[in-house]
Amino acid sequence: MARRISVRRIMKWTACLLLLGIVGSSVAQSKDLVVDLSSPIVRITTGFAGADLLLFGAKQGEGDIIVVVRGPWETQTVRRKDRVLGVWVNTEQMVFEDVPSYYWVASNKPIEDLLSFEDRDINQIGLADLTLTPADENADPTKAIAYRDALIRNKIVSRLYSEAPEQILFVDDVLFRTHVNFPANVSVGTFGIETYLVRDQEIVATTTTLLNVRKFGIEAEVFNFAHKQSFLYGIVAVIIACAAGWLANAAFRRR
After folding, report:
1. Residue with more model confidence, 136 or 88
2. CB under 8 Å to 143, separation ≥6 — which residues?
């Protein structure tokens, strides 16, 4: 009986030591930066007017926080309009590839005070350091800059780019939070949210969080039908347009 008790004690102490070892290892390997969202999915349904998500997290030790949200990459065409014979028409254009459809930045201090130019340029933090490359490698550099600035201005007007970094609030020395606003015209797809822990003008920790913007309900069915059955969608759209015109004409005739 005594032998059984001693064996049980040995097994019990072994289990405790293993548990302490696992806990100690997890604590030692814990991240300096942890970030999460109030919701990992933005649902676009009928009447969608935009969304406001809470981004929150915790950091270990001293440091400042920078958050960069980049939307799905796409090809953008920027056109220039000139007045020809009294009519404004498109005369020139420039195509940009790998353009983030959505770009949003937040920080608790001015980014210029937190990072050097080299780090901002490498990580493309801030609109001034956002790389937008023309599809034509032989494009005139002076024109490319002008068209790039026009593209950014259009995105700002559409509320798809943040003109200035939003504010990150610290609850205490560890916890922080901010709100990410997505307008009604936000693109569908996967968004990357990069959070940087900066200390002494150096990035000491980075974490990436993914966010999905998806259509649900009737919006999703119409979207899928338009992309998977584009020919039939075009025919249906023409029929609906003709029917609407005929009904409108009939209504005016009755009056």
Report:
1. 136
2. 94
| pLDDT tens per residue, range 179-224 | 999 999 999 999 999 999 999 999 999 999 999 998 765 554 455 5
- Answer yes or no: do 221 and 209 share one domain: no
C-alpha distances out from residue 132 to 33, 135, 153, 154, Å: 29, 10, 13, 14
Are 160 and 87 in the same domain? yes
Q: Report which of residues 11 and 113 the model is more confident about.
A: 113
**Nearest 10 degrees: Cα torsion 95, 98, 99, 104:** -170
Overall number of domains in the chain: 2
Answer yes or no: do 102 and 150 share one domain.
yes
**74-106 burial, b if ≥16 CB within 10 A, otherwise e?**
eebebeeeeeeeeeeeeeeebebeebbbbbbbb
Same structural domain, 174 and 236: no
Residue at 123 is within a domain: yes
Using CA atoms, how far apart are residues 223 and 213, in angstroms rounded to an integer? 13
**One domain, residues 164 and 239:** no
Q: What span, in angstroms and rounded, lies between the C-alpha atoms of 187 and 103?
A: 11
Q: Does any domain span residue 21?
A: no
Do 102 and 227 belong to one domain? no
Hunting for tokens 């409108």 — which residue is that?
248
Domain residue limits at 43: 31-215
pLDDT tens digit string along 41-70? 998 887 888 899 999 999 998 999 999 999
